[in-house]
Specification:
The protein is an alpha/beta fold. Helix content is about 30%, strand content about 20%.
Length: about 250
């Protein structure tokens, strides 16, 4: 079995990723985006980086994974389409779960996420365009953490103007979102996800309050990512970036 082994300049951790494992983790039929795994090292947070496929400087999309998961499990569903126009950075939660995977702590996670993103941006060697701000996507527990990051300005006001939350019983505050520079919020869930109806109601509530929000249904699926997610993601990204996707 071939293995990819590399050492980034200035990074202490040797990175070894099996080509066979990478092929297994990427969605069937998707072109494999280049991937760099920066393992946790000397207190530095683990993070996965998928560079944009086009040359030049690009904005960044950050994805926060769910409870007791790993960043590649969630980010493999975003990598192919996000990297058509942006870099994708996927931090790993700092607390390890007994059964495997990692979980976001309730306190101190914001600084950990920002350190991971900063580490990912450094690996992109000057190819980051900060002007448009970042897109922030959170799934399940990651959605709760993403909402707190964005609506409380934990990484600085205006750092995350575009926010997508998937499968979580969140209660966003339109006032706090506006105050901290969030411009557009997309809520999303599968039809069989228990969070589906709640998130759809929240989208309507926020719109009535004058905050630009959309709900995007993900079809007949539960609280999981499936291969069908790729059918809905382009619509989500178009609306987040330019407000061009219709409400579902």
């Amino acid at each position: 079995m071939k293995r990819l082994c590399m050492r980034r300049s200035g990074a202490r951790a040797k990175v070894c990723l099996s080509f066979a494992l990478l092929g297994f983790l990427l969605p069937h039929g998707a072109r494999a985006a280049p991937l760099e795994l920066l393992e946790s090292d000397d207190g530095e947070p683990g993070v996965i980086v998928y560079p944009a496929r086009a040359p030049g400087a690009h904005a960044v999309t950050v994805v926060l994974h769910g409870m007791c998961s790993e960043p590649v499990r969630a980010c493999r569903h975003f990598a192919e389409q996000v990297t058509a126009s942006q870099h994708l950075i996927c931090p790993r939660a700092s607390r390890r779960c007994d059964g495997g995977g990692s979980i976001w702590p309730q306190l101190g996670f914001a600084a950990q996420v920002e350190r991971a993103v900063t580490r990912g941006e450094a690996a992109l060697a000057g190819r980051v365009d900060d002007a448009p701000g970042r897109t922030l996507i959170g799934y399940s527990l990651g959605a709760f953490r993403a909402l707190e990051l964005a609506e409380h300005g934990r990484a600085g006001p205006g750092r995350y103007p575009r926010l997508m939350l998937i499968g979580a019983k969140i209660l966003p505050s339109p006032q706090r979102l506006r105050e901290n520079g969030v411009e557009r919020l997309l809520l999303s869930a599968g039809a069989w996800d228990m969070m589906h109806d709640h998130m759809r109601r929240e989208a309507r509530r926020l719109n009535r309050a004058g905050f630009e929000t959309r709900f995007l249904g993900l079809g007949p699926v539960g609280h999981v990512f499936t291969s069908s997610f790729a059918q809905y993601l382009p619509e989500a990204l178009r609306w987040l970036e330019a407000g061009q996707a219709p409400e579902s």
